[in-house]
Each structure stands twice: as structure tokens, then as C-alpha cells.
Design a protein that fits this description.
Helix content is 31%, strand content 22%. The protein is of the alpha/beta class. Strand 4 (78-80), helix 5 (89-94) and strand 5 form a beta-alpha-beta unit.
Length: 382
């Protein structure tokens, strides 16, 4: 096996899902987003494990992602969050996927294709309450719900929206999220008031699950928290301060093995650009891991990796396929020794994806999603 690999701790995934379950009503379902290959963790294995942990629904961004799950034998409902292209409509129906809709053209086209297949198709109506991405305006939601209900081959199973700043504790953002919730509730009430039944009303993302319990409704969509990271300002410290003891465990751990240990004299240059120079005689370890694997160049200045319980900085620029770490003069590290790049700290990592995100001015989603598929995933536990 390749010297660079990612451990996926499925027990941690189940632990995180349990943390979500403990913070929602007993009858509220969980829809796990497994889009983007389950945020880089591997959609099929993550989905199968999550379903064993009583997740009811899965969500993907692309039709092809849903087909991948079906080919793996997964039979649970799968919601397609992003809009499909008409060329994918037959595949949606053939694979029993649930598309999102929010305009009459898509509704009419889906009904027509479903009629050709002579198969009832469940859909979810997306309402844009302030995200500004996709969805109908709240003022148009009742009309569209009526349009769906009038179709012979469509069934309005769900209505949903998405929050844009639920992970922020800025007062203005808190008010904005509350406004989104109110708009959603008002839209749902108006739809129900004309006799249309809705099985699944859902809007709570990771942040809202913990910060806005009133938004749980029939189903929640815990994305990043399921993979072990707190969303934005909704940190462990904040949750503790409001009396919520929620402990999340990172699911992904990135490891590599030293393929070479080289000795350099004082004043020698390491890697591209001659930007890093040795300040004394020292050893440098080489890891077969670079930005093509998802270890981006911008991480290099602050990243510290863990080897045999000690931490070491990277030295020189991260290359496409390799990076170097400064081992110093006195060490007991041998060739082929494993290094932990990031992951659960209770398993030996010095930094997790959240730490890398913080010093890289990004979010942990980007860190885990960015680990390339050429890095083998090893599934542990569960």
C-alpha cells in the first residue's frame, strides 16, 4: 500500500451522530450529507455505517453521487440537494433518487419524465429564505407546492431551506437566522393550510442543530459535525457556556511514512525557490505527500506533524507529491516511520483539520474535502 494514507475512524462517526441524536427530539430524523465523497471520507463506507447508526436519509449534491450509493446496494432515501440537468432526469427515476425543485419548468419536466416511466417521484421543495443561492421565494412557495400536488406523477414529500449564518454569534447574524426560521415556518404553515401534507420539513444544519433547537422540525442535516468539527462560532467552548456538553471526534486522520532521511550541512537550501535554508547540520525527512494529495502549499509555514509522539515542522515549500520535515540533530526516527499530518488528537495528532483551517483562513470542510482520492482510505472500527 502507498506510504501516504488516511485512516477513517467509523466509531468516531457514530459517536458524532449520537451527539446529534442526543440534541434533537426523539421523532426527528437525521439526513446525513455524504456529498463530495462524504466530505472526503468516502461516501459508500460512511453511508453504510451511518445507516447502521440509525440515520434515516442521505443527501448528495450530484446525481452521480446518488447513483454511486445505489450501485453499492444502499436503499435508503437519497436527496439530491443541487439542481440536476434534464439529461439526468431518467437516472433520477431509475435510481429512486429524490430531487430538489423550486420552479415550474423543472416541476413540469420531472412530471413528464416520471409519466414516461409510470413511476411516482418524490420531490422536496427548496425555499430560499435568505441564502441567496437556489430555491423559490417564500411568497411563491404555496403556488409551487400546489403545482407539485396537482401533478399525477409527483409527490411533495419535503420542504426545506438552508441557513447562511447559523454558525455566527454576531447579533445581526443571529437575528438573520431567526428571520430565516420565521420565513420557513410561515411558508410551511401556508402550504399546510390549503390541505397539502408534508412528511419532512427540514432546515437545521450542523450549527442550527445545537444553536437553534426550534429549527429541528421533522429532520436535521448534520454535515461537518458528523465528521468531527464544530461549525464556525459554535465551538466546544461556546456550547459548554450554554450548558451543552457536546464532544465531537474527528473522523479522518492523514498519515504518511518517511521514505528517506537525509543529512544536510549548515547553509543548504531545501525545496523550490530556495526559500528555506538550514541553520545548522541537521536531518530532514522526506514524506511522499504533497499538494496533489491535498496538502496545500499554504499549509507549510504553520503545519507541525507528529512522529513518535513529538512534533516537527515542515521545511521548504510543499511540492506536488512530496514534502520535507525538519528532524533536527538528535532524534530516534528511522526510515519508514509513520508521521501523523492531522487527525484526532487522542490518537496522536498534534493538529486536526480545524487547526489547519484556522491558520489557513479557511474551514475544516475544505481540508477534508481536499484530500485527493489517490490517498487510500482505511476504514477502522464499527
Amino acid at each position: 500500500m502507498r506510504a501516504t494514507f488516511a485512516n477513517i475512524y467509523l466509531d468516531n462517526l457514530c459517536h458524532n451522530i449520537e451527539q446529534v441524536k442526543n440534541n434533537i427530539p426523539n421523532n426527528t430524523k437525521i439526513c446525513l450529507p455524504v456529498k463530495a465523497d462524504a466530505y472526503g471520507h468516502g461516501a459508500v463506507s460512511v453511508a453504510k455505517t451511518a445507516l447502521e447508526c440509525n440515520v434515516s436519509y442521505l443527501a448528495v449534491a450530484a446525481v452521480a453521487e446518488g447513483i454511486q450509493l445505489r450501485k453499492a446496494g444502499i436503499q435508503s432515501p437519497i436527496l439530491v440537494l443541487s439542481l440536476p440537468h434534464p439529461s439526468e432526469f431518467d437516472e433520477i427515476i431509475d435510481n429512486n433518487l429524490t430531487p430538489s425543485v423550486f420552479d415550474t419548468q423543472i416541476i413540469d419536466m420531472l412530471d413528464s419524465v416520471a409519466a414516461e416511466h409510470k413511476k411516482i417521484l418524490s420531490v422536496h421543495l427548496k425555499i430560499d429564505t435568505g441564502m441567496g443561492r437556489i430555491g423559490c421565494l417564500p411568497s411563491n412557495s404555496t403556488f409551487l407546492a400546489e403545482s407539485i400536488a396537482a401533478k399525477k406523477w409527483l409527490k411533495l414529500e419535503g420542504v426545506f431551506t438552508h441557513f447562511s449564518v447559523a454558525d455566527s454569534l454576531i447579533p445581526e447574524d443571529i437575528e438573520y437566522t431567526k428571520k430565516q426560521i420565521d420565513l420557513f415556518v410561515d411558508s410551511v404553515q401556508k402550504i399546510k393550510s390549503i390541505g397539502i401534507q408534508i412528511s419532512l420539513c427540514h432546515c437545521a444544519n450542523s450549527a442550527a442543530i445545537f444553536a437553534y433547537p426550534q429549527a429541528a422540525f421533522d429532520m436535521v442535516r448534520p454535515g461537518i459535525v458528523s465528521y468531527g468539527y464544530y461549525p464556525g462560532d459554535i465551538t466546544k467552548e461556546y456550547l459548554d457556556s450554554i450548558g451543552k456538553n457536546i464532544t465531537l471526534k474527528p473522523v479522518m486522520e492523514l498519515r504518511s511514512r518517511l521514505v528517506s532521511i537525509r543529512h544536510f550541512s549548515d547553509g543548504e537550501y531545501i525545496s523550490y525557490g530556495r526559500k528555506w535554508q538550514t541553520k545548522e547540520d541537521c536531518d530532514v525527512g522526506v514524506l511522499p505527500l504533497g499538494y496533489a494529495d491535498g496538502l496545500l502549499r499554504r499549509y507549510g509555514k504553520n503545519l507541525r506533524i507528529s512522529i513518535n509522539g513529538n512534533t516537527y515542522p515542515l521545511c521548504g515549500r510543499i511540492c506536488m507529491d512530496q514534502c520535507m520535515t525538519l528532524l533536527g540533530k538528535n532524534h530516534n526516527i528511522d526510515r519508514w516511520t509513520e508521521a501523523i499530518i492531522f487527525g484526532p488528537k487522542d490518537k496522536g495528532a498534534f493538529q486536526d483539520a480545524s487547526d489547519i483551517a484556522n491558520f489557513s483562513d479557511t474551514i475544516p470542510y475544505e481540508i477534508t474535502c481536499g484530500i485527493d482520492k489517490r490517498v487510500p482510505r482505511i476504514y477502522l472500527g464499527k
